[in-house]
């Protein structure tokens, strides 16, 4: 395995890293709510494209 680690150590790190990534993404979507105004931005860009 990479850097001479065992399979169990490697898989533990992989699972923890994946779980942390999913938790971070969920936190961003719950706290910061980046997709709430997505429709507004899409409409604005469509208007810009039609005008320009």
From TrEMBL:
Membrane topology annotation: Single-pass membrane protein
Keyword terms, alphabetized: Membrane, Mitochondrion, Mitochondrion inner membrane, Transmembrane, Transmembrane helix
InterPro entries, per the entry: BRAWNIN
Record's keyword annotation contains Nucleus: no
Gene Ontology cellular component list: mitochondrial inner membrane
Signal peptide: none
Organism superkingdom: Eukaryota
Primary site of residence: mitochondrion
Protein location: Mitochondrion inner membrane
Pfam families the UniProt entry points to: DUF4516 (PF14990)
GO annotation, biological process: mitochondrial respiratory chain complex III assembly
Family assignment from sequence similarity: Belongs to the UQCC6 family.
Name listed for the protein in its UniProt record: Uncharacterized protein LOC108744716
Native species: Agrilus planipennis (Emerald ash borer)
